[in-house]
Amino acid sequence: MKRSYRGVILLCAVLFLNIIFTQKAIHQYYYEDYTATVIYAILNIILFPIALFIYHKEKNV
Amino acid sequence: MDKNNKIPFDEDNYTHNINKNNERKLDRRGFMKTMVGAAGLFAVSTLPWGSIAATELMGLREKKYPKKEIIDVKKLNIGDAFEFAYPTDHDSALLIRLGENEYKAYQNACTHLRCPVFWEQSKSELVCPCHHGFFDVKTGSPTAGPPRRPLPEITIQVEAGKIVATGVKRYET
Questions:
Q1: Which residues, other chains included, contact B2 with Cβ-Cβ below 8 Å and sequence gap of 6+?
Q2: pTM of this prediction?
Q3: Cross-chain Cβ contact B32/A37 below 8 Å
Q4: Which structural domain, as residue segments, surrounds residue B82?
């Protein structure tokens, strides 16, 4: 049976963004740019429900 | 055996060709689950950074630095460096006397992976021996190697023949 791998690709993209935001948040923390740190941390948290949403949409495709 | 001799098989879950144990453990759906779990892990791992940054932003921790005597001016020759700790005992720092009245002090944890940075007098450079990171002694900014962020500078005063640390400079953002 042919499966759709769109979910896999989308989740890989989400995880890639996760890595970038985590790295950026920590670097900006050491630069004492606390606003940017908070923004990146929030973005990282928002990505989790997005990942869940993608999973629920794509698990039976 | 009888079942397998019939075509088509009386089966609808498409797993008749799977023989190994755990063959379906990391299939497409299992992989997606792992990815969602990893996304959750990343979200949780940035929480402490975000919350510390938020408390700093709200000014709950107004930074006040104590004055601390480092060394007598007479004991430090021009071109020499002296290691001390500021603001706490766990933040090692380096004081360099560049001229008669020219002093520079930096927190000397390398901004790459926190190895101690040393003063190389013959080359007039700050050197991190771990991965050959180099820093400019006048500004603290990295000149070569892996570090990308300048060393935090410590403000210095000379009071009654003694060199005194008064604070840590913030990065200009």
A1: none
A2: 0.75
A3: no
A4: 68-168
SS3 string of B51-68? HHHHHHHCCCCCCCCCCE
Sort out which chain A residues have CB atoms less than 8 A from B40's CB and list them. Answer: 48, 51
Shortest distance, CA A57 to any CA of chain B (angstroms):
11
ipTM confidence? 0.92
What is the pairing mode between strands B118-120 and B162-168?
unpaired
Asked whether residue B173 is assigned to any structural domain, the reply reads: no
Task: State which amino acid sits at residue B82.
Answer: F
**Tens-digit pLDDT string for chain B (173 aa):** 565 566 666 666 666 666 667 766 678 888 999 999 999 999 999 999 999 999 988 876 667 888 888 888 888 888 999 999 988 889 999 999 998 889 999 999 999 999 999 999 898 899 999 999 999 999 999 999 999 999 999 999 998 889 999 988 888 75
Cβ-Cβ contacts under 8 Å, A49 against chain B: none
Residues of A with CB under 8 A from a CB of B: 1, 3, 5, 7-8, 11-12, 14-15, 18-19, 21-22, 25-27, 29-35, 37-38, 40-42, 44-45, 47-48, 50-52, 54-55, 58-59
Nearest to B35 among A15, A19, A33 (CB): A15
B122 inside domain:
yes
Of B62, B81, B98, the position where a domain reaches its end is: B62
Q: Are residues B78 and B142 in the same domain?
A: yes
